[in-house]
Design a protein that fits this description.
This protein is mainly alpha-helical and about 80 residues long. The chain is about 90% helix and about 0% strand.
């Protein structure tokens, strides 16, 4: 039994039909395009994770300056 009730032979026949329809060059370029897109997505996620601590620090500083301003206006 293969994936979801599809046997290995059925998967091979489907793969053969796809290769005959699109050709190996088209499938190769499609694979490289998909790989490049995944690589870019992973890099963007990694950049966002690295950016978050800096953003949190900036948000804390902004919040502290806002609270300091509000304390100054309340004192007057």
């Amino acid at each position: 039994m293969g994936i979801g009730g599809i046997s290995i032979w059925q998967l091979l026949i489907i793969l053969l039909i796809i290769v005959l329809l699109f050709g190996t060059k088209k499938l190769k370029s499609l694979g490289s395009d998909l790989g490049g897109a995944l690589k870019g997505f992973k890099q963007a996620m990694k950049d966002e994770e690295n950016k978050e601590p800096e953003k949190l620090e900036a948000d804390k500083e902004a919040a502290s300056s806002v609270s300091a301003r509000s304390e100054n206006t309340q004192d007057k």
